[in-house]
Design a protein that fits this description.
heterodimer, A: seven-stranded mixed β-sheet, 9 strands, 21% strand, B: 286 residues, alpha/beta, seven-stranded mixed β-sheet, 8 helices, globular
Chain lengths: 253, 286
């Protein structure tokens, strides 16, 4: 069963997956296949040491070791990597109608979506490098609402939708804040509490579109903040989705 | 024990019910350690012959329900054989009695389509399977307005007609036992009615369903009403429901367990015990 990581260009979709394969930072989740070195070879440009932007859509099989309250489990998942243009360029969708339609069909076969959102300009520290590359709050709110519309219109078959305000290191002290979002493998993590905390702290200003989304019958949304600079936060959406991947009903054809 | 079929509308909590029962043995040990809920002492639940489907249920209880998340819905499948038979051995506390549970739960759509005559062909193989057994557990909720009239009553009407016709061909169906269970009775408006569920829950909250069922099956040997709660309340002296409903405008169907450490289910075994033995459990809390 697949999990698709979606989000606008350069938000860091591939780098989150790369970081989860990094064995040195592991807490409760580790991508063990492909291994870290293989993923680094694919995604890091050795000359610049920067991520190579994803140009084409592709699907990869992942094997993850996940520490759940019921014990350590191995999970097989598919990760659909998508180029950012697919999401933030209406022109791309216009130029590639069959690819877009085909992708939407496959998206609806996915068990879960991880949407990564960059923070908006007013949220980040004034010392952030190039804050003008980020959207203003007004533009971000419009984009956020478009994502919710997309979930309503095009993802009706997807059971689990997670929304992550990514690059949390730009707007908070991730080590301090991560204490609010701690996972315990011995049980006692209440996902609804994590969801409520994230919503109150970081999505409060978009309550109205969220309520409208639910009024229209939208599926449950689970909110997180994530950062590649804090492994605990980065693992949360995968820990949330893992039991659903693990305990999904058998599929028969 | 005869095989049991569990039916009911979407979101009634059928799989959550089964998953909680599968985990009830472990939960009973935890409750005994903390000195809470003495009536669970000695309760044991084991999956028979390493039944992987029942182990999946335990996993759902530990990794999903206890973590405050919702069990995914059971989907309709192309063949009844694709729905697992959960096989659990349950040692009842007290008298040393044992229930050998073999149960299959149907997707909620099956119950909802029962009331639509033109759609009955879509669920024909579920109906055929249902009528191979004479132990049914029907799980209902009452949080959706008008459901009694719009969904439940027509479903019962068609189901009971089908049962009547089939009983002519299969005499074993004359010995049917149907346990009708009001689920999610941790809710404040239901909790006080749990002790006399037929009088205080079904007659009042689902009067049309109650009437049609009682008219067709007047004998208490064939039909009994129960109340259960997979989540329970926060404690003996704290009757707040151990359930959390997101304040985001989402449906009441999205309720989940509030606090895994206070998890004390109510009345889950009573309907199964009656279906198995025809007798009532002395402790209705079980």
């Amino acid at each position: 069963m697949s999990v698709v990581v979606i989000g606008d260009r350069a938000v860091g979709k591939s780098s989150t997956v790369l970081e989860l394969a990094n064995p040195y930072e592991k807490k409760f989740v580790e991508i063990v296949e492909p291994d870290y070195e293989t993923l680094k070879d694919k995604y890091i440009n050795p000359d610049t040491n920067q991520m190579v932007p994803t140009r084409t859509e592709g699907q990869r099989s992942l094997v993850l070791n996940v520490q759940l309250p019921g014990g350590e489990k191995q999970i097989n998942a598919h990760w659909i990597d998508t180029p950012g243009e697919m999401w933030d360029s209406p022109q791309w969708r216009k130029d590639n109608p069959s690819a877009w339609q085909d992708f939407k069909t496959r998206l609806n076969e996915c068990l879960g979506i991880i949407l990564l959102l960059a923070p908006y300009r007013d949220l980040v520290s004034p010392n952030t490098l190039n804050p003008e590359e980020l959207l203003t709050f007004q533009a971000w709110e419009i984009r956020f609402t478009k994502w919710l519309d997309f979930f309503l219109q095009d993802c009706s078959q997807v059971e689990h939708i997670t929304i992550c305000l990514h690059k949390a290191d730009l707007f908070c002290n991730v080590d301090n804040v991560s204490k609010e979002f701690q996972y315990s493998d011995s049980g006692g993590t209440q996902w609804w509490k994590i969801n409520e905390t994230a919503r109150k702290m970081y999505f409060n200003q978009v309550e109205k579109p969220i309520k409208n989304y639910h009024k229209k019958g939208g599926k449950q949304l689970q909110f997180f903040i994530t950062s590649i600079k804090n492994r605990g936060l980065l693992e949360l959406p995968w820990l949330y989705l893992s039991p659903y991947i693990l305990y999904q009903e058998k599929t028969y054809y | 024990m005869s095989a049991i079929r569990i039916i009911g509308p979407r979101g009634a909590g059928k799989t959550t019910y089964l998953a909680t029962i599968a985990y009830l043995g472990e939960l009973a040990i935890k409750l005994a350690i903390t000195g809470k809920q003495e009536h669970f002492k000695g309760l044991e639940v084991t999956a028979r012959d390493s039944d992987s489907d029942s182990e999946r249920l335990v996993g759902l209880a530990k990794d999903v329900i206890k973590q405050g998340e919702k069990v995914p819905p059971t989907r309709t499948k192309g063949n009844i054989e694709y729905h697992p038979d959960y096989q659990l051995d349950i040692n009842i506390p007290g008298g040393g009695e044992k229930i050998e549970l073999v149960a299959k739960d149907y997707p909620g759509e099956v119950f909802e389509l029962l009331g639509l005559r033109h759609k009955l062909s879509e669920i024909e193989f579920y109906l055929d399977d249902l009528l191979t057994t004479n132990r049914w557990l029907i799980m209902l909720t009452d949080w959706q307005p008008n459901q009694d009239e719009s969904t439940y009553k027509p479903a019962f009407k068609n189901l009971l007609e089908k049962l009547e016709a089939e009983t002519q061909k299969k005499p074993e169906l004359a010995n049917i036992r149907i346990a009708v269970v009001m689920a999610k009775c941790e809710r404040g408006e239901l909790w006080p009615g749990r002790l006399e569920p037929e009088q205080d829950l079904f007659k009042i909250r689902l009067p049309l369903s109650h009437k049609i069922l009682r008219e067709k099956l007047p004998s208490s040997k064939q039909l009994k009403f129960f109340a259960c709660s997979s989540f329970g309340v926060m404690g003996d002296k704290n009757p707040r429901p151990n359930r959390y409903l997101p304040n985001d405008g989402s449906s009441a169907e999205n309720a989940r367990l509030r606090d895994g450490n206070c998890w004390q289910p109510y009345g889950l075994l009573s309907p199964l015990y009656w279906l198995d033995t025809g007798k009532m459990l002395k402790d209705v809390r079980l």
